[in-house]
């Protein structure tokens, strides 16, 4: 769709991404219908949000009736309402969004955040602890970020928007709501309404809901709102784009720089530029560029730098960055946390198809992790190749770690050619991890895939074999005390308790490794906890263990053991690696033992089927450290092999 068309003609066609939409009175009347929630769930799935879980549907049943009772009492039955309104790419879903007409003829938007809480404990202006012990974002700042989205993603030519935000605690008392409101810090213009507020007289309630001056929007105004094609404002693009492109940590060298130049040339050919007359030089053909490279070759650094460049040089192409790695995405969100509206630049992998229909340029990192359900290219990736004028796909085929993953360069090339798309393949051969030690990554590849060779050392990089996990843990603690990031990882060879008791302040010590008696020591057992599924805090709200997706960088992560899913795509100064009983060296070769894995998607495989996934997993874990790697193995023959290689 050409960006040279009048704004109204450039609108995205099709239904708004949400669970339900209509006039308040009509939705309120439908709430009592037995099939209403089923219709909402179907539209929710069709919007690309996935299947709503039991907790999601329970929140709908509990929160929607009191909300609509309040809206009717306030005389707002003719306002337009959207439930579970999705921002571009599905990055966020708003509980409820009201749209009305302002006295000046513009559109007034009210974002409503619904909470079923009665009480919570305010930890600081950004976080609260719910009564079940879960730490979450402060609702006032959460909904203020949604308000910021509409303010920063309104494109030129779109209707003028007056955006407001409200938090509704429909089970809380006024006193409980006052505690939450006071804990938000400075006044950000977001009122906190409680059960007592929601039953106030009509006019007063309308004002509390920030709707006192809003009238029913005309059908044309509703259509105009739904036609808005949300995209970052030039101010946001300049700010975040400059941060991403100009960050010295992303300095590009060697084949990184060569790849950057070639991709920029392709972007200039296939994407529109500001002030450009007519269509891009490449017309409607489009291009697919694959970029492959091993651990530490700079794929993610190049991908992030490229996003910043495309945002500034080709803003109307609506560039986006998608990764199937939830851990990497969490770190990207963390990196732009000062620009709340920038989170939309990193949509979830589950929304890849819907993003492909909107974006003119799409960067995909860790593409080998994209889920597949059969033979051939994954359907999500096929949609990208079909719709996106410029797709840049980063992958490493030796980081395929599950049977339901595994996209290859050859599959992408064949699919691109079948669609008549130009395909270019670029290789990154450098090493920017392991103190620039290509020698170390070559040693790891020889160990796992070829003939193991002795480690002869490399200036600036250290490799050690650790006799027992107690010493490994001591080394990690010491490195952390010196101000370095140090983490230990292991393959999934021990049980993993996924839930913890309400109010728990410790993690279960699921990992147990028996150390036999030595000449001067008694037998003992080392215990450790896996990384935490959700943030763990002490009784005073101080972080004890970070959320698993931020385990590699946030305070306290060194005290838990990470896994392939929390380490892949990331790095830290010092890496401890535990090679468990699922991979052993016997009779001069590696042997796989899927029965030793606790991963249900892998345990059913034969040893020959499991072996490549095990080798790839340990390749990832062994190449996370930028300065040092310490290895411990639970198998005597494997330890003997490594002892002969690591002097």
TrEMBL record:
- UniProt entry keywords in alphabetical sequence: ATP-binding, Helicase, Hydrolase, Nucleotide-binding
What residues does the AAA+ ATPase domain cover? 285-432
The record ties this protein, via SMART domains, to: AAA
For molecular function, the Gene Ontology terms on record are: helicase activity
Q: Which Pfam families match?
A: SLFN-g3_helicase
- The protein's name in its UniProt record: DNA/RNA helicase domain-containing protein
Q: Which organism is it from?
A: Streptomyces heilongjiangensis
Print the organism lineage.
Answer: Bacteria, Bacillati, Actinomycetota, Actinomycetes, Kitasatosporales
């Amino acid at each position: 769709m050409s960006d040279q068309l009048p704004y109204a003609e450039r609108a995205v066609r099709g239904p708004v991404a949400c669970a339900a939409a209509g006039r308040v009175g009509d939705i309120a009347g439908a709430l009592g219908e037995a099939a209403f929630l089923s219709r909402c769930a179907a539209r929710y799935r069709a919007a690309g949000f996935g299947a709503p879980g039991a907790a999601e549907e329970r929140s709908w049943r509990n929160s929607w009736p009191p909300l609509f009772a309040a809206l009717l009492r306030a005389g707002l039955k003719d306002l337009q309402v959207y439930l579970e309104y999705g921002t571009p790419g599905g990055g966020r879903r708003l509980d409820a969004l009201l749209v009305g007409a302002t006295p000046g003829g513009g559109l007034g938007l009210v974002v409503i955040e619904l909470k079923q809480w009665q009480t919570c404990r305010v930890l600081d202006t950004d976080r609260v602890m719910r009564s079940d012990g879960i730490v979450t974002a402060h609702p006032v700042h959460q909904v203020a970020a949604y308000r910021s989205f509409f303010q920063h993603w309104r494109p030129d030519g779109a209707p003028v928007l007056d955006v407001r935000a409200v938090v509704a605690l429909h089970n809380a008392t006024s006193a409980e709501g006052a505690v939450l409101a006071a804990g938000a810090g400075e006044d950000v213009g977001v009122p906190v309404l409680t059960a007592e507020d929601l039953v106030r007289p009509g006019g007063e309630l309308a004002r509390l809901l920030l709707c006192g001056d809003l009238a029913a929007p005309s059908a044309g105004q509703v259509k105009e709102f739904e036609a808005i094609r949300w995209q970052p404002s030039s101010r946001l693009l300049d700010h975040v784009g400059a941060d991403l492109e100009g960050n010295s940590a992303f300095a590009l060298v060697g084949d990184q720089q060569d790849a950057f130049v070639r991709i920029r040339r392709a972007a200039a050919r296939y994407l529109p530029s500001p002030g450009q007359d007519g269509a891009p030089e490449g017309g409607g053909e489009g291009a697919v560029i694959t970029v492959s490279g091993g651990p530490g070759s700079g794929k993610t650094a190049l991908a992030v730098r490229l996003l910043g460049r495309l945002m500034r040089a080709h803003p109307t192409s609506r560039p986006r960055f998608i990764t199937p790695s939830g851990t990497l995405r969490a770190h990207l969100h963390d990196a732009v946390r000062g620009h709340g509206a920038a989170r939309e630049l990193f949509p979830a992998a589950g929304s890849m198809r819907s993003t492909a229909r909107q974006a003119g340029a799409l960067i995909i990192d860790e593409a080998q992790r994209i889920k597949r359900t059969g033979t051939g290219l994954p359907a999500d990736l096929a949609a990208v190749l079909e719709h996106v004028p410029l797709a840049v796909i980063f992958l490493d085929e030796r980081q395929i770690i599950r049977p339901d993953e595994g996209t290859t360069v050859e599959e992408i090339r064949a699919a691109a050619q079948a669609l008549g798309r130009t395909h270019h393949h670029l290789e990154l051969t450098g090493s920017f991890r392991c103190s620039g030690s290509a020698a170390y990554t070559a040693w790891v590849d020889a160990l796992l895939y070829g003939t193991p060779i002795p480690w002869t050392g490399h200036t600036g990089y250290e490799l050690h074999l650790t006799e027992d996990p107690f010493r490994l843990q001591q080394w990690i603690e010491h490195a952390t005390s010196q101000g370095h990031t140090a983490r230990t990882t292991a393959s999934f060879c021990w049980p993993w308790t996924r839930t913890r008791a309400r109010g728990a302040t410790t993690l279960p010590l699921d990992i147990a490794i028996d150390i036999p008696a030595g000449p001067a020591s008694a037998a003992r057992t080392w215990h450790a906890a896996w990384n935490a599924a959700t943030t763990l805090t002490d009784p005073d709200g101080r972080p004890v263990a970070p959320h698993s997706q931020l385990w590699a960088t946030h305070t306290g992560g060194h005290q838990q053991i990470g896994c392939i899913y929390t380490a892949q795509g990331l790095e830290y100064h010092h890496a401890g690696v535990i090679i468990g009983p699922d991979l052993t060296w016997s009779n001069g070769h590696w042997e796989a033992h899927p029965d030793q894995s606790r991963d249900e998607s892998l345990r059913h495989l034969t040893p020959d089927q499991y072996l490549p996934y095990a080798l790839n997993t340990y390749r990832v874990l062994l190449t996370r450290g930028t300065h040092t790697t310490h290895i411990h193995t639970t198998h005597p023959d494997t330890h003997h092999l490594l002892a002969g290689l690591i002097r």
